[in-house]
Amino acid sequence: MQDLQTVFNQIREAKKEMKDIRAMYKDALSQTDEYDETVEKAKELREKKKQIETRVQNQMGKAYGRFEDLKNDVAAWEQLINDIAMTTLMDGKTVEVVDEFNNRYEPIYAVRFKKTNEIRPEGV
Q: What is residue 4's predicted lDDT score, i.e. its pLDDT?
């Protein structure tokens, strides 16, 4: 198995190359007349779509308000279930849930890294 730092470095290099290629791609697109026209039409259609959605949401009134409340509740509960699953895992217990049809669900764990404000001294 490769070590963590090596894989991290490979990811950073690939992302840098992707960024460069994306810039070349955007430059090539900007030189195409048809692309600019299409982007403008798409922007107008998105605005029209948003206006229609807002109108329908207002017509639905309390029902749509309830939808928004439920959406926020689900997001909060998903964060809570993540916290409970991690705590259960760290206690060395099995983590699973069962739905109303007796289907078992196992968690999928993901690790992400975020940049800290600390700079590590060279050679450490």
A: 87
